TrEMBL record:
Gene it is expressed from: aroA
Stated family: Belongs to the EPSP synthase family.
GO molecular function, one term: 3-phosphoshikimate 1-carboxyvinyltransferase activity
InterPro entries associated with the record: Enolpyruvate_Tfrase_dom, Enolpyruvate_Tfrase_sf, EPSP_synthase, EPSP_synthase_CS, RNA3'P_cycl/enolpyr_Trfase_a/b
Protein name per the record: 3-phosphoshikimate 1-carboxyvinyltransferase
Record keywords: Amino-acid biosynthesis, Aromatic amino acid biosynthesis, Cytoplasm, Transferase
Reactions catalysed, as given in the entry: 3-phosphoshikimate + phosphoenolpyruvate = 5-O-(1-carboxyvinyl)-3-phosphoshikimate + phosphate
Organism lineage string: Archaea, Methanobacteriati, Methanobacteriota, Stenosarchaea group, Halobacteria
């Protein structure tokens, strides 16, 4: 699907979709349990992949209802009680790196062999450190191509114990080990070999584990979780909070095109590092207020100024910040960004190249991206979504203020994290058309 956006202003009220990060963890945690109801879950391509893995392990995920705002569902999950069965077929993780990493550790608990794969993009992403850690903990885990990338073959059972792992490749390795470690006999103690990047995502994991009755903790050198624990949320239910990675898009839309102001609901505080986007937009000069108790953000457009910001702990914000920088006066430097190159695509290069098609000047370094907003004039063009939901949504924001029409190719990939994204934009007043509309 291709979507064409004409210059538009946004207004009114929109609602944040549920958090993808929390939903992944909650679905798998309910799988580790006897079962649970997960309310306000994000039902997207990525989270469906995690639900499919729970099914493969012998659980059952049933979607009870879908809300009118698209992509939100209540899930009734029968779990496998901490002991995943050996899958009868290959586990296809689609495009979801979170699914592959969390499920790889779960597969190591099974008394047999599991095979995991994904799409072309996912098969290019690094899994080696996690495979090595699982092998050190008593499982067999290898890449079929011998390059640390999927397809993966994992044979359990996992014994547990102490393991060291780098912290600067993916925080998802730590999440995977903590979630699986709680149901091993020995538990798992993780020593970090390097500084942990994307640390707030592990905070999310600790928060979800606590909600499911599992005790995991930080240590002097990393993290630890005792074995022999049982996943059991209070009242057998868990509610997913709103997603600040996704909130970044309507928030940025309001900052650059919300002359009359835009209200975003469902923005309750949580452990998500991407809540930093509220401060970033404020620092750049937008008129923004966040009522944390009510869970509502009010944002209005104002002249923006370039800033320097680190995405060491908030890699998913880089595309949004890059677009804000294209609109701002002066330079916006996005630092500590090398790990953002190992997402669904190399998002540093993707944003530099695609914004370049729209007339934006950038300077790309291995660990940073500088957007020269003062030297740029946004002009409509045809850009590639790169099969990356976050790149697509960030480019859609640029289309709001570019001169002329902006066409985004492959825009249907927003289904990965924000299935109703274009409906939300239309509801806020954006003039857009998809090629599906013409059929």
């Amino acid at each position: 699907m291709n979507v064409t956006i004409s210059p538009s202003r946004v207004r009114g009220t929109v609602r944040a979709p549920p958090s993808k990060s929390y939903t992944h963890r909650a679905i798998l945690a309910a799988g580790y349990a006897d079962g649970a109801t997960v309310r306000d879950a994000l039902w997207s391509a990525d989270t469906r992949a995690t639900a499919g893995a729970v099914d493969r392990f012998g659980g059952d995920v049933e979607r009870l209802e879908a809300e009118s705002d698209g992509g939100t569902a209540a899930l009734e999950i029968d779990g496998f009680a901490g002991r995943p069965g050996v899958p009868a077929d290959v586990i296809d993780c689609g495009n979801s790196g979170t699914t592959m990493r969390l499920v790889t550790a779960a597969a190591a608990l099974a008394d047999g062999t599991s095979v995991l794969t994904g799409d072309e993009s996912l098969r290019s992403r690094p899994q080696g450190p996690l495979l090595e850690a699982l092998a050190d903990l008593g499982a067999e885990a290898e890449s079929t191509r011998g390059n640390g990338q999927a397809p993966l073959v994992v044979t359990g059972p996992l014994a547990g114990g102490e393991v060291s792992i780098p912290g600067d490749v993916s925080s998802q390795y730590i999440t995977a080990l903590l979630m699986a470690g709680a149901v091993t006999d020995e538990g798992i103690e993780i020593d970090l070999e390097t500084e942990l990047k994307s640390a707030p995502y592990v905070d999310i994991t600790l928060e979800v584990l606590e909600a499911f009755g599992v005790d995991a903790r930080r240590t002097e050198d990393g993290f630890a979780v005792d074995g022999g624990q049982t996943y059991s949320p209070a009242g057998s239910e868990y509610a997913v909070p709103g997603d600040f990675s996704s909130i970044s898009y309507p928030l940025a839309a309001g900052a650059i095109a919300g002359d009359e102001g835009l209200r975003i609901e469902g923005a309750h505080p949580s452990a998500q590092g991407d809540t930093a986007i509220v401060e970033i937009v404020d620092r750049m000069g937008a008129d923004v207020t966040w009522d944390r108790e009510e869970g509502a953000i009010e944002v209005a457009a104002a002249p923006l100024e370039g800033i320097e910001v680190s995405v060491e702990d908030t890699p998913d914000l880089l595309p949004t910040i890059a677009t804000l920088g294209a609109v701002a006066d002066g330079d916006t430097t996005i630092a500590n960004a090398e790990h953002v190159r190992y997402k669904e695509t190399d998002r540093v290069s993707a944003m530099a190249e695609e914004l370049g098609k729209l007339g934006v000047e950038t300077t790309e370094e291995q660990d940073s991206l500088t957007v020269h907003g003062g030297e740029s004039a946004l002009e409509g063009a045809t850009v590639e979504g790169r099969d990356d939901h976050r790149v697509i949504m960030a480019l859609a924001l640029a289309g709001l203020v570019a001169e002329g029409e902006t066409t985004i190719r492959g825009a249907d990939h927003v289904d990965v994290s924000f299935p109703g994204f274009f409906d939300v934009l239309e509801g806020a007043g954006v003039d857009l058309e998809s090629d599906l509309d013409r059929r």
